[in-house]
Specification:
By secondary structure, the protein is of the alpha+beta class. The chain contains 1 helix and 4 strands; from the N terminus they run αββββ. InterPro entries: P-loop_NTPase, Rad50/SbcC_AAA.
Amino acid sequence: MIGGDTGAGKSTIFDAMTFALFGSTTSEREAKEMRSQFAEGTDTTKVVFYFEQNGKIFKVERTPEQFLARKRGTVLLKSPYR
């Protein structure tokens, strides 16, 4: 069970898990909106999700579409996986 105050990030946790597994979120939030407002413009946002199934540990890593600041303007980073 996950509990917490309004705005604490409960839905964000489930959105991140769903995005890692399926490439989209379950809420009205788009994947590109998962980027933290506190992230530096040069930081890459990604979801890393570990889970265990039948004694094996799996790692899923996915990067949402995002704009990153570079020395000469910004660049749109798109995920190769859809």
